[in-house]
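Researcher: Here's the sequence for the chain we discussed earlier.
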Amino acid sequence: MGLELIFTQIALLAIILVASLIFFKRIKAAQSEYENAKEFVHNITSGFSRQVAKLRQEVDQSKIEAGTAKIIASEALKLGVDSKDSIIKSSESIQNIQNQAEIDRTSVKNLENRLDNTEITIDSLKKEMQKISVIKSRTNIPQQIPAAIPVQQENIIYKLTDTEINILKRIADLKEGTVPEIKEHLGLTREHTARMLKKLYESGYVDRSTNAMPYRYSVRKEIRDMILQRSENPKIIEK
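Model: Thanks. This is the structure I predict for it:
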């Protein structure tokens, strides 16, 4: 009995040992498969992560491009609106120019008509003047033009100011003188000298020649003689 029990225990130990070896081998194989599966899953996960990252970059780039395209579209739309407004304004300007051109053509036409009428009027005036010339040549009527200042009036020189006397003396020295020639000697402005000469001419102290520009002024003989007498015999005017 004892011997059988020992054999039985030995057999059990052998079975257990064999079973343990088989189980150990299976565990090692399972662990190897697990490691392989783990590496495979890691590779798949890494590839998927890379694909996801790449897709994310593409999406971000697409967003940027879409934003840029939106900005370009907005600028293009704004430019189109501005171009439309410019075209409308240009059309209005062209229309205004055409209207102004039409008005100018009408004005030119009216001016041409007025010029034609003026030429007709000038021709009529020439004919009338020719008739008057013929009548005047046939009738010799003597005319007497009275002097602007009565020469017999005494002391008319003493009614003049010193500046006016100086102007008359300067003209007498020059025989004839223009406004620029007279003003240089007296130190007056051109406007002042012209006003004084006009006054003396309208008052009859000087004569004016209008045959050329500028006008030439000369002192009347009677007035020149009075100036000489005044220089030789000065008088004092009582106030």
